[in-house]
Amino acid sequence: MVTRARDPGPFVREIEHTADLGLEVEAPSLPLLFERAGLGMLGLMIDLAAVEPRERIALALAAEDREALLHDWLQHLLVRLQAGPFAVSELAVEEVSERTLRAWGAGERVDRARHHFYTEVKGVTYHQLALRETAGGWWARIILDV
Amino acid sequence: MVGAHHPRRLTVELHRIGDWVWEIPRQGGMRVPGRIYASEKLMAELRDDPALAQLANVAHLPGIVGCALAMPDIHWGYGFPIGGVAAVDAEEGAISPGGIGFDINCGVRLLRTALAADDIRMHLDRIADALYQTIPAGVGSEGAIPKLTRAEEKQMLARGAAWAVARELGRPSDLESTEEGGCLREADPDAVSETALERGRSQVGTLGSGNHFLEVQRVDEVYDARAAAALGLVAGQVTVMIHSGSRGLGYQVCDDALRTMGRAMAHYGIGMPDRQLACVPLGSPEGQQYFAAMAAAANFAWTNRQVMSGLAERAFTAALGLGPAALRFGLVYDVCHNIAKLEEHTVDGRLRRVCVHRKGATRAFGPGHPALAAHLRPLGQPVIIPGDMGRYSFLLLGTAGAMAETFGTTCHGAGRVMSRAQAKKAGRGLDLVAELARRGVIVRAQSLAGVAEEMPWAYKDVADVVEVVDRAGLARRVARLKPLVVVKG
Q1: Would the pTM of this model clear 0.90, i.e. be above it?
Q2: Which single residue of B60, B87, B139, B387 has CA 20 to 30 Å from A8?
Q3: Measured CA distances, B368 to A86, A87, B101, B294, B399 (Å)
């Protein structure tokens, strides 16, 4: 499965937090939750509609538990966007376990003339970070420092 | 920090112990009491805020001395509250990246000019355009400083603001009016990760978004004419204020440390309810590595603000056709409000070396302090408190009271009252640019949504915050500054 920025959203729901940006994500499967969380966060930072999936990048991560994996996944996408700078508008999580993740993303290098930026996210916090299995699938809460 | 609770579920016991001070008594695993500086009005808004429980969590920090302190602009942060201050013993205490924040050395500087607001009123649009074009916002922007080589970046991290002055951005005298001279000597560029270096390489001299801004202001009201004159300020004068920090490099230093410390804490026998509160002993290898990297990030931030000062001066020249002699740009002061510093303070009658965490709080050293340059020593340290973009900001001076009560610390800003989502909702359907123009403020911004999040209604009135620190003796008011032009990333 692939989640594309142009798929019907919203992928994430903003929750109330005074200083920072809180997000809730729901999905029927864990790979889909990671895809939605990733594109949901990036979509707050840049207009993904203008990001063409020209180039495919491989993404592989390992962390000490599932919540840390979600944190590291988002942090990795954030760093790619800010340091590359490379934006992805498609994400496919091929495999996600308790501690590892394998995925690919498709996007392109940032071009300030075509790509419009919104809020700059400074970091993905561990504050109130949660990832749980629910009756309908998976649910996560993430607070971003903006 | 074992035993602390989720902030929303912790009921905080609170006693008023002075006209402007409330105390959370020690309970559970708190090592010291918590103390909050606030007026009745501000406390009424704070009473049910998770920030108070977060302050109680701060009091669990190993090696904390005195009290866990909160300034009147305290609000709910991640881990530590914003507006929180914690001093830990330099030998036995713990350092916590969450007590400093992602944006290491986020800070504010105030520049004076020789211009009178009345003389440039007709040219404000041109000045706004020139500033917006000259000062890049961030990711993907072509900055005035081309992408640095790894070696150049490391030199910059070691030298701080002097690196920018050597490139003719600002002048050598600016360094005397910058906290720490714009350079923490403890900085070690080799302690900064490759990812952090990569995130910083093309961001020197960029503003960033969120609550960061550059403003052209008018000195609107002077409360202490002698002190203002000593700082080169009179009513009606044009000033420039810059609020920005260490950009991607600092954010990554924080993230790297949270990851390392999260794993190392068990080794030091420290537990905590929230990964964002990760901490290790300051003297441990992990603690020392973070401190050296944090200091390098702080130097990045000072360089960044120094570069933007130089760029702002160039923008004024381009807009008005006036050279340096006519503009007479000069730095009043540069403060950081997200940092940890090794300082000496008297605690329970004894002089102690402590590491003071200030997260959304400003150093406010009183008159005579040896850390101040000679021209500032008789006055006390200038403290710059930005308000929201539609109202005003304040210039204050540090006091002996702050030295005695708050480890030489005062507030840092207005403090949010609305979430970003609420602020956007409140602004829906309004022409925000026109609304600000009605208030006499010209705005240039990358994103209108960003403007909505930072509208005046999202913040407390900074005058209420400043009144508390002034009355409580934690700083004294010198002047009020009103925005004429706001540039946002």
Answers
A1: yes
A2: B139
A3: 51, 52, 30, 28, 10
